[in-house]
Design a protein that fits this description.
- This protein has 3 domains: about 120 residues, no CATH class; about 150 residues, Reverse transcriptase/Diguanylate cyclase domain (Alpha-Beta Plaits, 2-Layer Sandwich); about 240 residues, EAL domain (TIM Barrel, Alpha-Beta Barrel), CATH 3.20.20.
- The chain contains 21 helices and 14 strands.
- It is an alpha/beta fold.
- Strands 6-7-9-10-11-12-13-14 form an 8-stranded mixed β-barrel, surrounded by 5 helices. A 5-stranded mixed beta sheet has the order 2-3-1-4-5, with helices on both faces.
- The N terminus is likely disordered.
- The structure holds ligand C2E and magnesium ion (2 copies).
- The site of one magnesium ion has 4 residues, from loops.
Length: about 575
């Protein structure tokens, strides 16, 4: 295709006229994007090419095609514009060429103009569609990515605090553990807002704001100090940080603690109370679950101990696990009758005569004997104390009845847990045991620890006393017995805690003064007194010198199985 050439002479007037008409014809059916003058100049050039092809000595099989293409490029390729072009050229071209062979070529050249335009039109349409398609694809991909991003953020962030959530924390820990060098250490701290339930009642809608405030502060902490901070929902937040030692984690935890405590405030402007649990260890070969579990455990220790902070210790965790396993084994042990009673004599200190025995529970496990310290509190926690207490009571009463039948009428003293006092069936259970063992009620004494704040159970104690059983206040001096209540309650005996005896015998004047004072008090209350924990002759001598009548202790007889005790007594 020819380019405009400044050196070529101006086209003959007939050519100029044709270009002008051509321009007008196209303008008549549509719009000239390039304007009239420039369109005419372009068409003049095309005309020049056409004439050159028609006049060429050899026919050019492609002539006209390029003109069609060019018309489309000039945006004059619409069917109407091409129609107008063909009509105009069919009329004008014969005037511009002279030879007969040139004339003959005109129809085919015009045909190729139409074909060129139509093929260029098609190509342009395909290209436009492709471009459109590409743009559209790009657009949708962006929308999709945005949505995925938003969804991911939602899935990985708490909706209130906007901090990373539990799933995010797990992802993060997994990453940290995987990337950890062999000696790399990690610290995880779980922080819990105390009294969150109360707080959410008091704050209502403002709670969302409070959480948002905490989120913002913790987020700043994360950005400034390079910790990872997460919100596990409600009152629970987590901080993860690389550490060299526990000190580093303590620092991070202190920062997070004050960020939370100072965020907004508790009810009426008080700072929020925060309890935290820390675990700091080498990271390699661990799992996210383990970190969270151990931090949770440290947190629960803090709560149990009434402290603000707990630090994970493997030894204590192993103890916990052992205790859990022990607690879980209690029901089977009851079925298998693994709980047995040992009996410790209660002695008249003046005559050494055995007046009664205290039944003390033991758990006979294969190869070892567990003492109450190992299982009573567990049974109280998991509710098994009711069945365990009933089993001990039954065994002890049966034993007392058997001794009595054999000419050995001993008062049987049995420990009753404060938890048992909350059992509405307790009185009925004891009545049933007395009936089934045929033990006279006054041969049974129930020991209730002074620390149980016995006055709360006045009603229960009255019911029990109405059966005719004796009631003793155990561990006297360790709790804070309400002396006024003591005069009201149906108590017949006090068992003096062994600390008084041991301290007095060791030379403590206040303890000695207490022993004297208490004896006077018990006298006035008409309580029998049993001094517990007598281990030496000197202790026994001291007590009898003060006027104490009954005692119990290793010196006088250790807790032992029924057969051994009976042998000893005979
Ligand atoms: P407790 O009722 O005050 O029983 C006395 C405890 O002191 C017994 O410990 C006994 O072995 C121990 N003891 C006796 N004489 C001496 C002594 O001279 N020196 C020293 N250091 N200790 C002496 P045990 O058998 O380990 O029982 C501990 C506690 O467990 C009991 O204290 C009682 O409160 C509770 N307990 C025992 N059996 C039962 C039971 O069947 N049910 C309930 N609820 N609690 C029980
Ligand atoms: Mg006792
Ligand atoms: Mg005691």
């Amino acid at each position: 295709m020819a380019d405009s050439d400044a050196a070529s002479p101006p086209p003959p007037p007939a050519v100029q006229e044709t270009a002008r008409r051509w321009t007008a014809a196209v303008a008549a059916v549509g719009f000239l994007p390039a304007g009239r003058a420039r369109t005419r100049a372009s068409l003049e050039l095309l005309l020049h090419d056409l004439l050159a092809a028609l006049r060429a000595p050899e026919p050019d099989q492609t002539a006209g095609h390029g003109v069609g293409v060019r018309l489309v490029e000039l945006r004059m390729g619409s069917p109407a514009a091409i129609g107008a072009t063909i009509a105009l050229l069919a009329e004008r071209l014969p005037r511009l060429v002279s030879g007969a062979s040139d004339h003959e070529r005109i129809p085919s050249v015009l045909g190729r103009i139409a074909a060129g335009a139509s093929s260029a039109q098609r190509t342009a349409a395909v290209r436009a569609a492709e471009t459109l398609n590409r743009a559209e694809k790009l657009h949708w991909r962006r929308v999709f990515a945005d949505q995925q991003d938003r969804l991911r953020r939602q899935q990985l962030h708490d909706p209130y605090s906007l901090l990373p959530n539990r799933a995010h924390l797990y992802d993060h820990l997994t990453e940290r553990i995987t990337e950890a060098a062999e000696t790399g250490r990690l610290g995880v701290c779980l922080l819990s807002i105390g009294d969150f339930g109360q707080l959410s009642d008091a704050h209502g809608d403002a709670l969302d704001e409070l959480l948002a405030g905490i989120g913002a502060r913790l987020d700043r902490l994360a950005t400034d100090d390079g910790h990872f901070v997460a919100h596990l929902g409600d009152d629970l937040f987590a901080v993860v940080t690389a550490t060299a030692s526990l000190d580093d984690l303590v620092k991070a935890a202190d920062q997070a603690r004050s960020a939370i405590a100072g965020s907004g405030s508790g009810t009426r402007g008080t700072p929020l109370r925060v309890v935290d649990g820390l675990v700091e260890e080498p990271a390699a070969g661990t799992s996210p679950d383990r970190w969270i579990r151990d931090a949770r455990r440290a947190l629960s220790w803090a709560r149990q101990d009434g402290h603000e902070r707990g630090v994970f210790e493997p030894g204590r965790a192993a103890d916990d696990l052992r205790r859990q396993n022990t607690a879980a084994a209690i029901p089977d042990a009851l079925e298998n009758r693994e709980f047995v009673c040992h009996y410790q004599p209660i002695v008249d200190l003046n005559t050494d005569r055995v007046m009664g025995v205290e039944a003390l529970a033991r758990w006979q496990q294969p190869g070892r004997l567990l003492v109450p310290r190992d299982f009573i509190a567990l049974a109280e926690q998991n509710g098994m104390i009711h069945r365990l207490g009933a089993a001990v009571l039954h065994q002890a009463c049966r034993q007392a009845a058997a001794w009595r039948a054999g000419g050995l009428p001993l008062v049987m003293s049995v420990n009753v847990s404060p938890y048992q006092l909350t059992d509405p069936d307790l009185t009925a259970t004891i009545a049933g045991v007395l009936e089934s063992t045929a033990l006279p009620a006054d041969q049974l004494q129930l020991e209730i620890t002074e620390s149980a704040a016995v006055e709360r159970y006045e009603h229960v104690l009255r019911n029990l006393a109405s059966l005719g059983v004796r009631i003793a206040l155990d561990d006297f001096g360790t709790g804070f017995a309400n002396f006024a209540a003591l005069t009201r309650l149906p108590i017949t005996c006090a068992k003096l805690d062994r600390r008084f005896i041991q301290e007095a015998a060791a030379g403590s004047d206040p303890a000695l003064a207490m022993l004297r004072h208490l004896l006077g008090l018990f006298d006035r209350l008409h309580f029998t007194v049993v001094a517990e924990g007598i281990e030496t002759e000197a202790q026994q001598y001291l007590l009898t010198g003060l006027g104490y009548r009954y005692g119990q202790g290793f010196l006088l007889g250790r807790p032992q199985p029924a057969e051994l005790l009976a042998e000893h007594l005979r």
